[in-house]
């Protein structure tokens, strides 16, 4: 997980309770955490001087927290408290809020998985065939016909076995 203030790895995770229904999560590296915790009010959100501004921020925050999925009915605040979404549609419903959260936690928003260690031989052959066919198309497009012929022969050997 990355620090929210800089690009270093976050080592300190702070949850500030603003009210019963509102809270703020911070993920900071050691240096930024020191600044946040020990420097007086510089990094913390300024308190509004007029009551109207405070109410405006509170309404926006509570509106976000009370937004719910039209399919399963889970509210965003329930997700924040439990850490679990209710259905696959929640990813789309809460996309704006989830994207930065996923980037901070995983570093990416796209999952790139691995193949199982004990992948069946036929599956390995299929994936190899797919790669070879792509390479064959690229070789033909580049007009590298000798390379294309070698790739064609490899594909034939794999298909026969």
Walkthrough of the structure:
With 161 residues, the protein is mainly alpha-helical. It is built from seven helices and two strands, in the order ββααααααα.
Query: What characteristic shape results from the CA principal axes?
Result: elongated
Q: Span between N and C termini?
A: 46 Å
Radius of gyration: 26 Å
Poorly predicted residue ranges: 42-60
What's the tally of helices? Answer: 7
Strand order in space, largest sheet? 1-2
Most strands sheet: 2 strands, antiparallel
What is the mean predicted local confidence, pLDDT? 77
Q: Which structural category do the helix and sheet elements fall into?
A: mainly alpha
Tell me the total number of β-strands.
2
Write the layout of secondary structure elements.
Layout: E1 12-17, E2 23-28, H1 30-38, H2 51-66, H3 76-82, H4 90-93, H5 95-106, H6 121-141, H7 145-160
Antiparallel strand pairs: 1-2
Brief descriptors of the model:
single chain; 161 residues; mainly alpha; two-stranded antiparallel ribbon; elongated
Concise overview:
The protein is mainly alpha-helical and 161 residues long.
């Amino acid at each position: 997980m990355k620090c929210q203030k800089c690009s270093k790895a976050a080592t300190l995770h702070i949850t500030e309770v603003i009210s019963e229904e509102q809270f703020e999560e911070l993920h900071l590296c050691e240096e930024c955490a020191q600044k946040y915790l020990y420097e007086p009010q510089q990094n913390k959100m300024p308190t509004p001087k007029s009551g109207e501004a405070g109410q405006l921020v509170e309404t926006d925050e509570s509106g976000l927290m009370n937004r719910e999925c039209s399919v399963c009915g889970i509210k965003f605040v329930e997700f924040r408290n439990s850490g679990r979404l209710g259905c696959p549609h929640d990813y789309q419903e809460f996309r704006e809020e989830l994207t930065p959260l996923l980037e901070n936690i995983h570093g990416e928003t796209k999952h790139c998985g691995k193949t199982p260690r004990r992948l069946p031989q036929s599956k390995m052959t299929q994936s190899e065939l797919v790669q070879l066919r792509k390479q064959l198309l690229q070789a033909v497009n580049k007009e590298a016909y000798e390379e294309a012929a070698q790739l064609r022969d490899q594909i034939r050997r794999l298909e026969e076995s």
